[in-house]
Amino acid sequence: MSAAEQSAGGAAMARPERTPDALRLAIARLAPHRLAEMERQKNEAFQLAAQSNSLGPIRGWLTIWAGEVEVERRPDLLARRRAAERAVQTLDRHDPEWRAATAELVAVLDEARGATE
């Protein structure tokens, strides 16, 4: 496994399957502070799926959280996201660097989600 596939704690973590249980286990290991957020969003997705009689919300939830796991398990993506988030939170919205930071956040998520498809 490459250095990019090392978890933040240094232990190698393979990419989990795109299933609710596998993603939950990965978040529990990599970012346990995000479990409540993940569970809340899963419940919302399942409720919306039932109301709309569509699997789209569940597929969307899987895509989002597979991407979040990818970011959390890859130090390169995690560092890029944290730096961009810091810039977005501290720079003035009219600063060109703020726009660059928001573009970087989108690029990180696109890369992470693309890697899990």
Topology:
Elements (H helix, E strand, L loop, with lengths): L19 H11 L4 H18 L3 H18 L1 H16 L5 H20 L2
Helix pairs in contact: 1-2, 1-3, 2-3, 3-4, 3-5, 4-5
Question: Please, could you describe this protein's structure?
Answer:
This protein starts with 19 loop residues before the first helix and ends with a helix. It is 71% helix and 0% strand. It has five helices and no strands. The protein is globular, with a radius of gyration of 15 Å.
Produce a short descriptive summary.
The chain has 117 residues and is mostly helical. It is built from five helices and no strands.
Order of helices and strands: HHHHH
- The amount of helix comes to over 70%
Shape: globular
The Cα radius of gyration reads 15 Å
Gap from first CA to last CA:
19 Å
Biggest sheet statistics: none
Helical stretch count?
5
Report the count of strand segments.
0
Low-confidence stretches: 1-10
Structural class by secondary-structure content: mainly alpha
Strand portion: under 5%
- Average pLDDT: 91
List the defining traits of the structure above.
about 120 residues, 5 helices, mainly alpha, disordered N terminus, about 70% helix
